[in-house]
Amino acid sequence: MSHKLWILISIALFSLSSLAQADDTIQVQASGTAQGVPDTIQFSLWVEAEGGKLSPLKTRADQITETILRDLQQRDVAREDMSSYQLRIQPQYERHNNQTRQKGFLVSRQIQITLRNTDDFDHLIDFALAQGVTRVGQINYIIADSSELAQQALLNAVDEAHNKAQLMAKHSNRELGDIVNIRELSEGGGPGLFMRAESSAINLSEPGQQEVTARIEVTFRLQ
């Protein structure tokens, strides 16, 4: 038998061995969760003024905004946790004798706030409304730093994957080996980690808990 033939046979046997080895695995998908209580509130305030002349309306909106920002600074809210640059000017119209004519303006400014001391929330809203704020909304309870929850969710997902694979291997009369490959799975095109809030059913003011979920796909070797 020629030397080249031996080489071809060796390559073929190695390929078959590698293929069999690659197929001798088990693949599972698993998810893990971790929960934490939100410690930060994000919300928006709107300052609105309506009238016939633009300049005094803008001046009033700016004065109210300045008063609120000064109060936030006194409450030790960091500058990066408040934003008030969104100014909107809308002409107002009315119908008269089948004609449309401008009757004035609506000036509004949105103040976006991240409040880390949540105990100040009620007092801040009372103060803002007393100064002339017309609307409060977009209130969200969040966890400022969810990295520890994300790590715990991943660890829980790995444990769940191992348990599932162990059960499947046991009922196949096989032994579970080492992990060959592991990857995070995306949720609707997003990251492998996603969060959802669970609100309290007892008190509408309670933030409830926020849940972080990790989804993974793990390939184990079978022995």
From TrEMBL:
It comes from the Bacteria. This is SIMPL domain-containing protein. GO terms for biological process: DNA damage response. Keywords: Signal. The keyword Repeat does not apply. Pfam families: SIMPL (PF04402). Gene3D superfamilies: Protein of unknown function (DUF541), domain 1, Protein of unknown function (DUF541), domain 2. Residues 1-22 form the signal peptide.
